[in-house]
Amino acid sequence: MKNACMIRANFMVIKETANLYTQVSEKHILPGVDLVERLGFAYESGSTQERTMASRMAELDKYQDEALKSIRKVANSVSFATL
User: Fold this and answer.
1) Please, is 41 exposed, middle or buried when counting C-beta atoms within 10 Å of its C-beta (0-12, 13-18, 19+)?
2) Based on C-alpha coordinates, what's the Rg of the chain?
3) What is the pTM of this model?
4) Is residue 10 part of a domain?
């Protein structure tokens, strides 16, 4: 019985971790990957390369700050000790 409880607890932790990763990935990681990909296209766009790149770098800085705050908030809201 003790082993069954330990297995259940381990699966609960794994499930919660997977749910958190999915949440963070969809809201913060994937948009960041998309933004970085668009940075690469800035050099292909023609004569306004410097302005486009500067604008996208500013967008990346803003994204980084906001994503970091949000991810920390999610991480701090989780307590595996209660599982």
Assistant:
1) exposed
2) 20
3) 0.63
4) no
